[in-house]
Amino acid sequence: MWGQVKQALAQSTARFLTRFATMLPGLAALIFALVVSIIVAFILALIVRRLLTSLQFEERLARWGFSGMADWSPMNSPTLLVSRSIALLVVLVGFLIGIAAFDAQWTSALAQTVLAYIPNMVGAVLVLLVGGVVARFLGRSVLIGAVNMNLQYARLLSAGVKWLVIVLAVAMALDHLRIAPGIVELAFGILFGGIVLALSLAVGLGSKELVTKSLERDVKRSSSELEDPLRHL
Amino acid sequence: METDSIPRQGQDKNEETNGADLVVGIVGEFSPEGVAIMCDALRTLSGAPRIAVLHDGPISKAGSADPTADSTTASLFFVPSATKTEASGTPVLSMATAYQTVFETGEKLGARGCCVIASQVQAAPEWVCQLTQPLLDGDIDLMVARYAHHKFDGLLNSCIISPLTRSLYGKRIYNPMGPDLAVSQRLYRRILAGEQKAGAAGLHPLASLTPAALCGSLQVCEVHVGARTYAPTDWTNVSSLLAYILGPIFLDMERNAACWQRIRGSAPVLSIGAPAFISQETGSVDVQRLVESFQLGNRELQEIWGLVLPPATLLELRRLLRLPAERFRMDDELWVRIVFDFALAHRLRTISRDHLLKSMTPLYLGWVASYAQELQGAGALALENRLERLALTYESTKPYLVSRWRWPDRFSP
Lengths: 233, 413
Fold this sequence. Notes:
The complex is a heterodimer.
Chain A: H1 2-54, H2 57-63, H3 78-100, H4 105-148, H5 154-176, H6 181-206, H7 208-224
Chain B: H1 9-17, E1 22-26, H2 32-42, E2 50-54, E3 75-79, H3 91-109, E4 113-117, H4 127-136, E5 142-148, H5 155-169, E6 171-172, E7 181-184, H6 185-198, H7 209-215, E8 220-227, H8 238-255, H9 257-260, E9 267-268, E10 270-272, H10 287-300, H11 302-308, H12 311-321, H13 332-348, H14 353-358, H15 361-375, H16 380-396, H17 398-406
Parallel strand pairs in B: 1-2, 1-4, 2-3, 5-8, 6-9, 8-10
Antiparallel strand pairs in B: 4-7, 5-7
Helix pairs in contact in B: 3-6, 5-16, 8-13, 10-12, 10-15, 13-17
């Protein structure tokens, strides 16, 4: 009986060792792909960092209204964030290529699925970036316009417009990433509609007196414009 | 005087082929009688020039070309005008279009000079001849009207346009942007060539005239024409007005930087006529409203102003926030530094140019409030002294502008 147990153990060990031996070339290819991708990522990150520094990327970001990005960047440097993100992406691609070298069906399918998902991720990041820029621009336009019209709730209006655009951009990005599309659509509709309704109520009811006073001031102003001695042009 | 409109297209087409010595654009709201009076005054110009008149509205028969005119008087003909103001355009934009049309017509007819009449002034109609005769004599390249004004008239001109032009280009011109002015062929050709070369961001047909003349060392002269009628303020549009007026001025600063950085001090220009002083009695100004606009802007636009103004200026503005309306005073030096900082930010495109100029509105209204408080009850002499003090402050603060212009990073806020 012990002889049979020994024989079974020896057979399973031999099967394991055979399987391991067949995987060794794949493993070697994976390690090689990782090493190459790390070297490429390092060189690419260096080039990107120098390019962004010469383009004064951080100053331009501050001017475009993305000064908050420095807060969640490593060492408060958005340049470092971008260069490290690119390096990470290159290493990830290298890892996926290395996994595909195992020549196992499921690893190839996984690699293909992940690689096919990368354009969606890039698209989502682009949508978020553009949405952020547009939100800042529109928020600033509304703020300046409302202040010049002497509206006391200028900041509220500006924040409302900015968050509307941001929520829209996030929903579009999540839709691009195909993350729970049905739930995201419903949640976006509720949230967007809720923000618009809240703004309308805030302006129409909650700040009714402010609006009334503004309108009264405008009526008085238009009737007294002819008597106003100021001439700008 | 009959006021029916006269079909003039057929007759004027023949006249156009012979060219003209002077092109006069009458823009704005003039009655047919008013236009006729202008035309009669233009006929008295010496040298018997051929004058082409552009005007949209109807003219009285008395204003039309006079077939009995002899060879010693100026002859007049009307040119179908494309100076119609677009219904959707602002008054400022439509004025720019009108100037452009007049210059293009001048170029087409080979005129020695162009003149734009846009204001109803109190002086006798002969002021038009004083504006145009020196051009025809070939002595002067740019004739600008100098108006007698109330203390609260032409505020943008008083607080920015005139003193800024004086400090930058070294010449004391009180109304560098007219609107009534006359331009020689040399100058209007320069403007047209500049517009074509640089496209949409090129020379502005009105704002660029005086800088182009001064930087090109051309002769400039002022004509005293008395008081002018000003349009009432559209308070919903002050920020757009600032953007339309200051945009071309700051673009010209950028274009002419090599010229104005060398200039120090200022000198008067040639002048025709005697200055007229008018009563300074006006209605009271609602300073409270202006101060409130300034305070609201100071509270809500700090984030934007912080990208443009240095910390010292922001600190002074915050100090002003605490002052009550009756004690509200903005120092001239603070105001001048603000104008210079905004001009620099416009050049550097620190933020969108439209946002930049519109965000200046509360600061401008703050200056107006301070100015109105100071001059409430003041007379003509006090007004002249006040404006002179502001202009001298622009000149004395110019080194600050030059330093910031040359080394913007060194003084970055």
